[in-house]
Amino acid sequence: MSSGGWRNKQVASRGALNHDRVATLTTRSSLLFPGQVAGMAGLSLDPMPPRPRFAVPPSPTVIATLRQVPFFAALPEADLERLASSARQKKFPKNMVIMSQGDENDSPALYVIASGRIKVGISDQEGKEVILSMLGPGQFFGEMSLIDGHPRSANIETTEASEFVVVNKDDFKLFLSQNFDMALAFMREIVRRLREADKKIESLALMDVYGRVARVLLDMAEKTVDGKLVIKRRLTKQDIARMIGASREMVSRVMKDLVEMNHVSFHGTVIVLNENLGASAR
Ligand code: CMP
To answer: What pTM does this model have?
Structure first.
């Protein structure tokens, strides 16, 4: 299946998001602590601090995945374990649409990427798409509809076989409402995304195509132990074109020039960025 054509693809979320709740005392989906009453989440009637009550022991993999996310890491260990015990694990193959822009029928939940990679994109009626972001392990999605109840703001598609930890909406809101540190860390993450979106708007509005390509490459790069900036994950010219609103042909031309100017070099599928590339992105 090709990576384009969001709207024609199977929407994996339908049917797949049915909730098999565990570790819950209610008929609805909330996870209650001892001393809490359904519909009164947050009001503790028990003067003793709540103790973990697990229907199933939390999986170490799920705990480790959640801990990678700064706002879950802000939770006390017992709360993190309690949340992990009610989270579910889901696997999807490569090129599977998990959420579709405009969808209002799937059940909101917070998805944390345990392994693999996804792209966040928006598309028009003709299937032309813009990639807003590429996300990998330790990152999350699905929070927008969960928070405001509006339809999905973007499409989410796997670009590699991926595994997710899925936190139910009511559990997420319950823990958020009871942990100020978590709420603050969550806001920090949302603000970070807003800053990234601002940077993207700036580059689209104010930079030429060289600058935009350079900025994408720098954003995607990781530092090796010897201080080199490299992109190890497969990044196609088509992907770059969709991230910066340019044609694939234009990106090919720019990449060729950047190689000739010794700003970047290719070593098999690995792209190495040279120090002078930064100047193109300013
Ligand atoms: P939601 O609207 O529920 O479903 C689509 C998701 O895409 C959205 O939540 C966010 O998690 C994610 N998303 C939307 N816009 C961006 C963006 N600019 N950067 C990163 N993720 C985004």
So the answer is: 0.77
